[in-house]
Fold RND superfamily HAE1 family efflux transporter membrane fusion subunit.
Amino acid sequence: MRCIDQLNGVVCFRHIVWLRIALTSFLAPMFIASSVLSAAEAPVPSVVVSLVSTQDVTPQVSHVGRVEAVAKVEILARVEGILEERSFREGSVVQKGDLLFRLETENYRLIVDQKKAELAGAQASLKNAQADLTRKQSLRKKKAISQADLDSAEAAEASAQANVLLAAAALKRAELDLSYTEIHSPITGQISRSRFSVGNLVNEQSGALATVTGIDPIYVTIALSEKLLIDARRQGLDLENPPVAPFLTLSDGSKFDQPGRFDYLSPEVSLTTDTMTARAVFPNPDRILIPGQFVTVSVRQKAPVSAILVPQVAVQKDQKGFFVLVIGEDSKAQVRYVTPGDQVETNWVIKDGLVEGERIIVQGIQKVRPNMPVNAVVGE
């Protein structure tokens, strides 16, 4: 009975082994198929891509510049008188020739009238002297008078001519003084506050009545390193047609929309700063630029330069060199070796290896392997 039990035990064990083998052989293909199915249904990684494009990489350097007025004129009184009228609004833009101040004129008109009368008297004396000279010349021919009488008549006529010239000059001076009672703006610009009010007595020693500042066009000056200009001087500086042009960025970060041009370079290096002053002139019709303010001056080469730029984060490096991951038409990642050039802010110039329009991965690179399909999303 024990042997039977043992035999039965052996039989039962053998049945269990064969049963496991049978089950394994039957279920193995199902497990393999399930694993393959799971791998096939694994989610495709999403990556952010950037389109390769050609961009402007024209060389430029930036400097801090200061805005300066093209002209600044102090308005002075050239004659003495009571200020009777102020014809401008303080802080406004005045045009060349606009009336700014008017002084009392009555006294100067009287002087003009007086000088006119003196001129008329001198002209009358001249006429009389000329007539007397003509008579004496005729008498001298007849030997009716002496040569001394004729010489005296000639001297009187010359003196009368001189008196006419003096009277005419005095009249012009009086008329000029009368014109100075009206003070006009010599330039177009923005006028300051008036330093004198109506009713004040002003003269040549009173100082500036107001100041007119020319702001269109306007200057911007920058200090350039002497070393920076060595190559430029070797090639020859041509201010009539310089190879570079200045562009402005304002203090709020916005770009000034008016183009400028260089018109002056100092002839010597400053002994204290080891720099040379360069000056550019800009149109300023909207009065955006104000004398004294600071701006950023970008000096750019006039001839534009274009190149392929890619973000630095897209460029990787291995033992073979620099590479990027390019998304092909089959939506798979491909390794593409490239030749990087200069750095432009957060981008790299790519000299060789990419063409415009290709898609490169810029985010999610760590999730991708070569020839792996990806879900590409174009970044902003």
The chain has a mean pLDDT of 83. The CA atoms of residues 316 and 322 lie 6 Å apart.
